[in-house]
Each structure stands twice: as C-alpha cells, then as structure tokens.
Design the sequence.
C-alpha cells in the first residue's frame, strides 16, 4: 500500500500542475523577443545542408558564402540584424524532414538556402512547399527536382540537363575526341550527368564503367580505359573519387584528356591528384571568380582562401533572401518576391523561370593549369 | 568477358597488388582472432593511421617526384618506420584502452565488439577532426599543411614514378607493382618464421591453442596478447606504406571499407590462419578485379561477398582452415 | 530492476529494488500504471517537456526515429539476444521492407498501404530465410561477416538497379489512410510555465506531410503489438529452445532441440520485424534512397541492442533510445557527435559490460559464476 501511495502522489501533483496552468488560444503569436527594435522582425534565414560529417565540405563552402552575404547585410542594417539558423542534415535524407519541420515551426525563418543535395531536397522540399517556406538551393542539380510543381523551389544554378550537353559538346568540338570513355559513380548526380553525356555523344562512346563512392582502388576501371584506347574520359562524380582515379590512370600511362563536371571543381582535387590533375577539363554552370573580383577579394579576406565550389551560389541565394527582408517581405510574401527577382549576382543574372530554375544559365569550361583552376571561357 | 581475356594479365597483376594490401591488413584480424577469439573491429583505423603517418613523413622530408634512387630509398624506408611505428602504437594502445579492461572484467564477447566499434569511431573521428584539435593547442598555422581540410582526401606526392620493367601478355608490369607484391610476400615470410620459431611466436601459438594450459605452462597471457596486437599493427603499417605507394591518397574514413575487405579475406582463407590470410587477400583482390571486368566495377563488392558465402558453404572454416596454433577442435 | 550487479561478494542487503516493488503491486494498480504510462508516451511529443525536447530538430520527428529504432532493436534482439546469432547486416531487412513499400505503392504499382505492409513483412521474412538457410550452419563469427556482406549486397543492388530507382531512390510514396477523429493540443513552455497551446495541434491519425506526431502514434501502436508478440514467443517453448541453443548448441542438439530450425525461425522473425520497421520508415519519409541504408546503420542497430542489454526486451528499448535520441538531443556538439558517441560506447563497455539493463537470467548466471569463482580462487577476478 505504501508503494502505491508513493507512485500515486507524484502523478496527482503532475495532474494538478497541468490542470492549473492556463490555455493559450488561437494562432501562435510568437512571444515578442525582449529587446530588438520595434519595427525589426528579428528575421532569420536558414542554411540547410551537410555542415558536419563526411559530406560537410560542400555545405561549409556554401555556408561561407551565406555568411559573407549576411555580413554585408548586417553592416548596412546594424539596427536590425538578420541571423543565420543552421539546419545540419549531414546530407542525410533521413534526418532532413524533421529538420525541415523545425525550420517551418520557427516563424522567424523567412527563407532557406538549401537543401544542398538532391536526395535531401526530395525528402524535405515537400514539407517546405506545403508550409510556403521558400528554398533557394545553391547546389542541388538534379533536373527532376523542378518537375514536382513545388511553388517554393528555386535553384540558383544550372541543372545537370544543361551541363551534360555542354560537356558533351566540349568533348566533341573542342577536344575533338573520337573515342570517349564514360565512367560514373552511381550517385544520383554522377550517373544522371554521365547518362546525358553518353546519350549526346552516341556512338563515339567506346566504353562504360560504374564505380562506387568511397572506392579508392580503381585498377579494374584503369585497365578498361587504357585497353580501350580512349582519347578522352568523362567522369560523372565528385572530387574524392576523381583524384585517385586520374592519378591511377596517369600512373598506368594513360595520356588522354580527363573531363569532369562541377562536382570536381574543388581545390582539393588538385591538392590530392597533384601533377596528375594537370590538363583536366572541368565544366561548371558557374561563372569564373574573376568575373566578380570584389566577391573573390572579400571571400579571401574573411576565409584566407579562394572561393570554392558553390560559395558564390550560396552568397547569391542568401542575398536574394536578404533583399527580400530589406524590402519588408515576410515568409508568405517572400515566394512572390523571389519569383519576380531580377538582379545581377556574383555568379550570374539572378532570375528564375516558372519552374524555379535559373533563367540565365551559362556553362563554362575550366582547365587545371599549374595547380590552379583557370577559366577558359563559356561553352556555346 | 572478352575484355577480361584480352587484358587477363593486367587484371591479374593489379588484382594481386591490392590483394597484397588486403593480405597484410587481414593478418591483423587473423592474429587477434586466433589469440582472443575477437573481431578487432578497430583494426581498420590502425591501418588508416599508418597511411597518415606514411604521408606525413613524406611531406616532412619534402618528398617530390623525380628524385634520385638513394633519396627515394631513404623516403620509402622512413615511410615504413613511421607507418609501422604509428600503427603498432595505435594497435597496442587499442588493446590497453579498449580490450584489456574488458578482459579483466570478464565481459561477454559481444560487448568487446561494441567497445571495438566505439574505439573505431573515436579513432576515425580524431583523424577527421584533426584540424580542430591542432586549433585548440594553437598549432594550426605550423601544421596547416598536415591538417587542412581534415574531412577531405589527403594526397601524397608520387615519389616512385611507376615505370614499366617488363611486359607479360601485353601488360607493362611496373616497379610499384613488383615492389608491392614482392614486399608483401617477404614480410609475410618473415612473420611466418617469427611465429614459428621465436619464443614470442611460440607463446602466441600456445595461447591461441589453449589459453589456460598456456597460462599453466608459464606463458604470460597479457604480454602475448600485447605482442599479438603489436605484430598485427606492424603488418597494418607495412600495408599502409604499400597502399600509399600504390593509391597515394588517404582519408579519415579510408580504413573502413578496406577493413571490411581485409576481414573478408581473413575469413576466406580461414580466420586464425596466417597463410590463409595471404591466400585470402590475393584471391579477394583477383576476384574483385575479374568480377569488375566481367560485370562492371559497381558490382565489385558484391562479387567479393558472394565469393565469400560460396566458399563458406563448401568449406565452413575457410580455404585453409583455422589454425594459428594448430587446428582447433 | 536491481542495480546491484557489481560487488559479487557483498551480501544482499539492499532493500527490494524497483522491479520487486512493481511486482508486488496489486494487479489492478499495475494495469492502471501501464495505462498511464502508455498515455504519457502517446502525449510525449505534444508535452514539449523542457530539456527532454530536442532543440535542433523537430521533437515529433525525432521521436518517430527513436520509435523505429526501438522496433528494429526488438527485432534484432530476437536474433542477437535470444538466439545468440551475431547479425551485422540487419539494415538489409530494413531496406527490403522499405523498398517493398516503395515499389508496390509508388514505383511499379499503386497498391493500398494496408495491403502492402503485410507484404513487406512477408518479403523481409522470406529474404531472412533465404539468407539464413545456407549461412546459419556456419558458426558464430563467420555469420557476422556473411550478414555484413548481405547488408552491403542489398544496398549495392539498390544503388545499381534501375528497376529499384537506382541512386535516385523512390519518391512520392503515398501516406497511409487517416481517420481525422479529434485534435490534440500541445503544451507551450516558452513563458516558463506550461500553457496549453490550442494553436499547435496534432490531428489524431491524419497522416500529413508536416506533422510527424501521428506517425509516431502509429509506430507506438506497432511497438505495443510487437512487444506482446515478443513476450508470448519468448515465454513459449520456442523461447526456451533459443535459450538452450544460445547457451550450448551441441548440448541442445543432443537433448533433441532442432537447433538449426530454431535459429532459422529467430532469423526469419527478426527479419520480419526489421522489414516492418523499414516499411514504417518508408511510409513516413515518403522518399527512400540507398543512402538511407548505409552499413553504418547496421552497426548502430547492433549497438542499440548490446548497449541496452542483449536478451532483455526492456533493455534493448533503452538502448535504442540511447542510440537514436542522444545524437539528436545533443546536436549542439555538432561535429563531435560521432566522437562522443564512440567514447560513450567504450565507457559503457567497460563500466556496464552486460548492457544498461542486462537480462535477468544473465544477472543470475553471473552471480552464480562469481560465486563459483569465489569458491575456486577465493576472489572473483579473471
């Protein structure tokens, strides 16, 4: 009996406590934060992507760009600063929906830069769409993302369907390859891109292979490429696999041209492949940094390195949202603001079509020369 | 299939090179399993630390392509010293921190696996966070080249440029291929003789055969276990050097997949059996390459595991059976 | 549960532990307590209790994840805890369950969710039998690597098979049919004291995109059913046969227990529950891709079982909560989450080698072992 009482008493107390507390009705007007200027919304923008874990590099490059945009804004609006809320998905589609819900529930968040990858976009974007929270992705390039009719989806760069044909064109017209080998890494990005290139090159593709992400020994693929006599190799994938792949190919004496896409446009590719990286052609729907020297200088001043892949896109995406905040937009009016946005950013003219794709897409070719990625002009 | 026949020797030689690395790492699993009946899950990290030690020492000594022979020999020797010292140290540390306390408490075998998984996470993450750690102690600027982008690949300059030495069946066998395969076999022979002939080797075999009788016969079990981990670590260190010479790029999580492969190789050959590890490593390397040639590189791991299942079905104790001491009952 | 597991020489002087006290309660009170506890669990995502609620991610979503881990741990416990088979590829069954849902409701057919879930369970179970039949004859540690290989084979097949959506995965998995009976308000703590917030509610069993609470309720209900099933099986002849097989396979075989068949049964049941959890995951996520079924997940699942105490169903539930909840709760550690998790596993292995809640039988067996050791050597240390 004594034991019963022991259990019953706390329960009763808990029940009383619950009963005694009041209720709060209607729509949640979030409690006004103490301090803060009267007219200031204390708005936040969200950064959604991998900031920790094995895929964090890309997320951090983007975040650097976003932070730079925030610095610019907060310098101009010192009395009403906008803060950054990080939603670190680790690039994992499993974690994405709950994080999206968190962002949606935080009514101060008026827009999201991200999600950074295509997989997590598929998992999280339906929720953002339903909640009417605008997302501008600086890096997810799967073409199908724009086909879902999501009102809140915007993409601040070209998708794989624009880059693939450009890469194929470059291989055909500029490199004048007649025997091309195509390898992909079975990832959504790499395979999607490589399939487009395969289709466009048609019969000049003399061999195909698929590797696995995180693979390090490519001896079988190397044998396939060298024995095929290919004069060019297109690799659809990311720099962690591209670096050992080209290194092993060069070690085996292969002399052809290595062509990759924006997933490899990353200084670490050169740092790791060293001399083997020389002469690699990189296509990217991104404007060379020398087009926006102020951005490059500001970035270098803050982070002590050159802007990396998608830093510029991150900067542009955040700038669009910040311009919206400056124009007095809130979450619900932000979608229309972004839809009608038309300004020059550091990477391109920022303007979206009806599906949320960037209206102004140019694909550029870059070449690795003397340990640097150098722009060689637009692929037309 | 035609491709495999046409380039049979290319697939064979390159398969043997990676197989040599698998074999050396597999030794670590086999030795520890033979003595403790324990899957040393964190052995993959022992290997990974070796690759970094090899990389760092080359960077420190200013290794670059195209140096003279004497210079290259010195660099490679230093790679072996650094990688084996590092891997040996990590392996012994692992035993002290993650396994010995459990043994003292007579913990169930499954919990040792959990401790090993925990240790594996900790070791890999420390390497993945090395830039933060140097940041705390204020060495970021001095060590920038060594720790920068700690989640990224870290590449080594090619100090031995691959040169074809001779040609078999249309494949130009390079100096690196020969060095790796011959080097691995020589190291295995030394190890085999060590376990067979030396006093410590006898101790290892005794404990593997029957720990209690060995203790009664005056074998210091803790010491034998420590030596076993050390030897396994040294082998992983040697594997790390060969790996860096062949692949040249490592990463904080580079150990994981290679560890799984090496463990597969150990089981394939008969876990607890030293020669089995060698055989298993080579067979796995070859099977992966042949499989990649026939069905595509994306099925490489599937080929490896299917082969394993098939072999276990027909030879449940692996190709050469389990026998570090002698076959156990 | 008594917590006096260490200090074997110490006589039993502690007052009756929590477990005994609960056992001594009248049956009606016990049932009432269970009902209150279940009620509490159902309301947990809406109570938003400070400190427990995750700050960095939506609490309802996190609780759902925890619930799937609990379900997985219960299934894996049958394999690892009851039958003593080391399975490192459990994620394979989880993936098979999820993909069965994906393929049959979205990719290649549009069948009703209610029909597909049982199919997912059966498919996972059959795959368990297909894997188990040839491999369960090999002993202990070999099974670990074979199952690990199985998990990888499943994932790589998903990545490389166009028919299964490849790396793009399968999207637009439909939501299960809902009921929309009544709304449950949540509690708001932002002013320091609990206030019922009528603005933020969850509709009882409306499976939407932006409210994970109903999925959590669904998962809780399924966990309840699986628990009842688990209790029934464990206390039956089957449970005793597993125990005998685990402790000494040869002796069990000699005593007439068809050990192989019982091992296969454990494998199949475990696989079925793994498939069920995967199905649940796919239902809530609406989108699945091979990325969600990495090898690491198998290791986390196993960690959940062993951390909690393999063989004790309440223990593995605690273990699953630890493994799934803590990394989300301590998001502020950000980059150090995995490091801290690894350290925690090591410390736990050293200080609670039997798991957080060891099975009762193990405590008994350990005491007997220690007593034996005291008799043999005068003091317990080996």
Sequence:
């Amino acid at each position: 009996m004594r034991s019963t009482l022991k259990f019953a008493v706390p329960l009763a107390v808990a029940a009383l406590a619950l009963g005694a507390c009041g209720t709060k009705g209607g729509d949640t007007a979030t409690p006004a934060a103490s301090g803060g200027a009267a007219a200031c919304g204390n708005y936040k923008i969200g950064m959604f992507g991998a900031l920790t874990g094995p895929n964090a590099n890309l997320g951090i490059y983007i975040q650097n760009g976003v932070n730079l945009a925030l610095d610019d804004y907060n310098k101009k609006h010192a009395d009403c600063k906008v803060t950054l809320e990080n939603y670190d998905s680790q690039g994992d589609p499993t974690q994405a929906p709950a994080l999206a819900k968190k962002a949606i529930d935080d009514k101060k968040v008026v827009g999201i830069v991200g999600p950074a990858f295509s997989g997590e976009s598929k998992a999280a974007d339906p929720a953002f769409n339903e909640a009417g929270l605008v997302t501008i992705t600086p890096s997810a390039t799967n073409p199908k993302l724009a086909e879902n009719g999501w009102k809140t989806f915007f993409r601040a760069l070209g998708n794989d369907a624009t880059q693939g044909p450009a890469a194929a064109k470059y291989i055909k017209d500029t490199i004048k390859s007649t025997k091309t080998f195509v390898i992909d890494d079975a990832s959504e990005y790499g395979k999607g891109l490589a399939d487009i290139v395969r289709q466009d090159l048609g019969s000049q593709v003399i061999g195909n292979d698929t590797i696995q992400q995180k693979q390090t020994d490519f001896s079988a693929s190397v044998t396939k490429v060298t024995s095929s006599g290919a004069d060019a190799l297109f690799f659809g994938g990311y720099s962690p696999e591209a670096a050992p792949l080209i290194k092993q190919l060069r070690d085996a004496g292969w002399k052809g041209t290595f062509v990759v896409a924006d997933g490899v446009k990353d200084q670490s590719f050169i740092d790791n492949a060293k001399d083997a990286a020389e002469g690699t052609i990189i296509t990217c729907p991104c404007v060379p940094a020398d087009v926006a020297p102020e951005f490059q200088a500001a970035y270098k001043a803050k982070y002590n390195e050159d802007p990396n892949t998608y830093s510029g896109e991150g900067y542009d995406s955040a700038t669009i949202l910040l311009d919206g905040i400056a124009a007095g937009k809130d979450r619900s009016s932000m979608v229309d603001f972004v839809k009608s946005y038309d300004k020059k950013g550091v990477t391109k003219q920022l303007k979206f079509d009806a599906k949320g794709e960037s209206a102004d897409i140019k694909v550029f070719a870059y070449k690795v020369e003397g340990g640097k990625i150098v722009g060689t002009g637009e692929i037309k | 299939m035609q491709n495999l026949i046409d380039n049979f020797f290319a697939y064979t030689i390159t398969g043997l090179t990676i197989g040599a690395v698998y074999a050396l790492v597999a030794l670590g699993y086999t030795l520890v399993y033979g003595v403790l009946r324990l899957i040393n899950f964190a052995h993959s990290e022992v290997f990974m630390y070796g690759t970094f030690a090899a990389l760092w020492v080359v960077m420190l000594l200013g290794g670059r392509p195209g140096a003279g022979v004497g210079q290259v020999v010195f660099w490679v020797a230093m790679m072996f010293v650094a990688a084996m010292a590092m891997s040996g140290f990590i392996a012994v540390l692992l035993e002290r921190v993650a396994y010995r306390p459990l043994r003292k408490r007579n913990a169930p075998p499954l919990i040792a696996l959990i401790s090993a998984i925990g240790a594996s996470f900790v070791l890999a993450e420390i390497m993945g966070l090395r830039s933060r750690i140097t940041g705390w102690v204020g060495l970021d600027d001095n060590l920038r080249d060594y720790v920068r982008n700690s989640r990224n690949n870290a590449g080594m300059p090619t100090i031995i440029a691959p040169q074809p030495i001779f040609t078999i069946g249309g494949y130009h066998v390079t100096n690196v291929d020969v060095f790796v395969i011959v080097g691995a076999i020589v190291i295995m022979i030394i190890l085999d003789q060590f376990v067979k002939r030396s006093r410590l080797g006898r101790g290892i075999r005794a404990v593997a055969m029957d720990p209690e009788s060995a203790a009664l016969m005056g074998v210091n079990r803790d010491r034998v276990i420590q030596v076993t981990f050390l030897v396994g670590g040294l082998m992983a260190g040697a594997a790390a050097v060969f790996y860096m010479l062949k692949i040249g790029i490592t990463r904080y999580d580079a150990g994981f997949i290679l560890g799984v492969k090496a463990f597969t190789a150990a089981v394939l050959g008969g876990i607890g059996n030293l020669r089995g590890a060698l055989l298993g490593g080579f067979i796995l390397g070859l099977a992966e390459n042949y499989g990649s040639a026939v069905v595509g590189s994306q099925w490489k791991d599937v080929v490896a595991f299917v082969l394993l299942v098939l072999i276990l079905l027909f030879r449940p104790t692996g190709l050469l059976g389990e026998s570090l001491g002698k076959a156990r009952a | 549960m008594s917590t006096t597991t260490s200090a074997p020489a110490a006589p039993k002087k502690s007052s009756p532990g929590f477990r005994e006290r609960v056992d001594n309660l009248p049956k009606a009170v016990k049932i009432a307590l269970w009902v209150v506890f279940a009620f509490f669990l159902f309301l947990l995502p809406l109570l938003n209790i400070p400190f427990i609620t995750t700050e960095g991610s939506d609490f309802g979503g996190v609780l759902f994840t925890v619930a799937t881990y609990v379900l997985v741990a219960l299934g894996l416990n049958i394999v690892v805890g009851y039958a003593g088979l080391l399975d490192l590829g459990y994620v394979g069954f989880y993936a098979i369950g999820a993909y069965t849902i994906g393929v049959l409701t979205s990719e290649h057919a549009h069948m009703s969710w209610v029909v597909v879930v049982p199919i997912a369970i059966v498919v996972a179970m059959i795959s368990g039998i297909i894997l188990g039949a040839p491999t369960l004859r090999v002993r202990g540690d070999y099974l670990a690597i074979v199952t690990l290989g199985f998990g990888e084979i499943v994932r790589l097949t998903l990545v490389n098979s166009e028919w299964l959506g490849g790396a793009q995965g399968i999207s637009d998995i439909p939501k299960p049919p809902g009921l929309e009976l009544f709304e449950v308000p949540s509690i708001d703590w932002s002013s320091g004291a609990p206030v019922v917030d009528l603005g933020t509610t969850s509709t009882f069993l409306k499976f939407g995109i932006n409210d994970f609470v109903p999925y959590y309720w669904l998962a809780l209900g399924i966990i309840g059913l699986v628990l009842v099933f688990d209790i029934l099986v464990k206390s039956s002849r089957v449970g005793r046969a597993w125990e005998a097989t685990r402790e000494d396979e040869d002796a069990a075989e000699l005593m007439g227990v068809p050990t192989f068949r019982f091992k296969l049964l454990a494998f199949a049941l475990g696989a079925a529950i793994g498939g069920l959890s995967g199905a649940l995951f796919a239902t809530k996520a609406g989108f699945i891709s091979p990325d969600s079924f990495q090898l690491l997940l198998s290791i986390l699942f196993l960690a959940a079982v062993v951390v909690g105490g393999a063989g004790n169903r309440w223990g593995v539930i605690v273990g699953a909560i630890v493994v799934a909840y803590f990394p989300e709760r301590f998001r502020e550690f950000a980059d150090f989450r995995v490091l801290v998790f690894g350290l925690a596993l090591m410390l736990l292995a050293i200080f609670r080698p039997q798991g957080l809640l060891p099975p009762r039988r193990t405590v008994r067996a350990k005491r007997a072992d220690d007593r034996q050791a005291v008799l043999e050597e005068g003091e317990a240390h080996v």
Remarks:
- Residues 16-45 of chain C form one domain.
- The CA atoms of residues 307 and 348 of chain C lie 7 Å apart.
- Chain C is about 65% helix and 5% strand.
